[in-house]
Amino acid sequence: MSGGWNTIESDAGVFTYLIEKLGVKDVQFEELTTLEISELQQLGSIYGVIFLFKYPTGEAATKVPKDGTYDHDAAGNLFFAAQTIQNACGTQAIISLLLNRERDVDIGKDLKEFKEFAGEFPPELRGETLSNSDLIRETHNSFARSSPFIDETQRTATEDDDVYHFIAYTSINNKLYELDGLQPAPISHGACTPQDFPNKIIPVLQRRIARYPETEIRFNLMACVKDLRIRARDIGDEEELDRQEDRRAQWLWENSLRRHNFVGFVGELLKGVVKAKLEQGDGAYDKWVEEAKGRTKKRKDELRKQGVVEE
């Protein structure tokens, strides 16, 4: 493999512009804040969901899934790829979902060619092919948050790390499938037409979340839907169209910020502030430092009163 995979955020703007850069047309992602069927239904055409959760690293592998059933035969009839690299799981889940909904989604020339090339491979080789795709990896990495402190290409998870994992759920051939590259096969959750998907997926997700302690809240759910601007145009809802265009502009701005780290800028800014304080004279610099120490002490005292102990 010619390069590593960096970590990307589970973010609607990241996912939307990632697939757009790969050539997918008229599709976007929406973050879901509840497990209400109505929240899914109001999004219109839904192609599937991407679920992010804390992976139970100490959990032993089982021959049967905790929910649903392995469909080993389906692995040859749909696009299912084994996960071969940790940081690629978000993009892998997205691509697996889209490649299985090609009848409904224009996945673009590049992903169509990728599917034609890797589609006949066994799941393990499909995963290797995806992980070694320069196009997919470089597109994925272009949305990673820039950090001067961590080399994600060299980092591997340890037992002490919180490891998070992405999986996809979608309706394929009128069945609800869970596509998890860490499992030996797609997991079937029973009959499900694309129209029934909002009703069928919510109980599956509720059972999944119920496996965790009630204190665990670190989940994220993204719906893969038809571009909401299209529906707004079709029904002549100018207000909604403007809102969606504003969100796109905000996503572009946020994605541009992710490509830069601001450590150098902050360092220069701090040096400028210190210089200005020193030039003021009359002890301005010392007073500024003492005020900062006072605010820090006050913050620590407040945290202690709340029962929070800082290391």
Automatic annotation (TrEMBL):
For this UniProt record, the keywords arranged alphabetically read as follows:
Hydrolase, Protease, Thiol protease, Ubl conjugation pathway
Q: Where is this site: Transition state stabilizer?
A: Q83
Cite the SUPFAM superfamilies for this sequence.
Cysteine proteinases
Catalysed conversion reaction: Thiol-dependent hydrolysis of ester, thioester, amide, peptide and isopeptide bonds formed by the C-terminal Gly of ubiquitin (a 76-residue protein attached to proteins as an intracellular targeting signal)
UniProt KW Ribonucleoprotein keyword:
no
Q: What class of enzyme is it?
A: hydrolase
Q: Name one GO cellular component term.
A: cytoplasm
What does UniProt list as catalytic? C89 (nucleophile), H165 (proton donor)
Instruction: Name the site position(s) for Important for enzyme activity.
Output: D180
Q: What is its EC number?
A: 3.4.19.12
**Its Gene Ontology molecular function terms?**
cysteine-type deubiquitinase activity
Q: Which InterPro entries match?
A: Papain-like_cys_pep_sf, Peptidase_C12_UCH, Peptidase_C12_UCH_sf, Ubiquitinyl_hydrolase_UCH37, UCH_C
- Gene3D superfamilies from the UniProt entry: 1.20.58.860, Peptidase C12, ubiquitin carboxyl-terminal hydrolase
Q: Name one GO biological process term.
A: ubiquitin-dependent protein catabolic process
Domain UCH catalytic: start-end pairs: 4-226
A Pfam family hit: Peptidase_C12
Q: What is the top-level taxon of the source organism?
A: Eukaryota
The family classification in the record reads: Belongs to the peptidase C12 family.
Write down what this protein is called: Ubiquitin carboxyl-terminal hydrolase
Q: Which organism is it from?
A: Cucurbitaria berberidis CBS 394.84
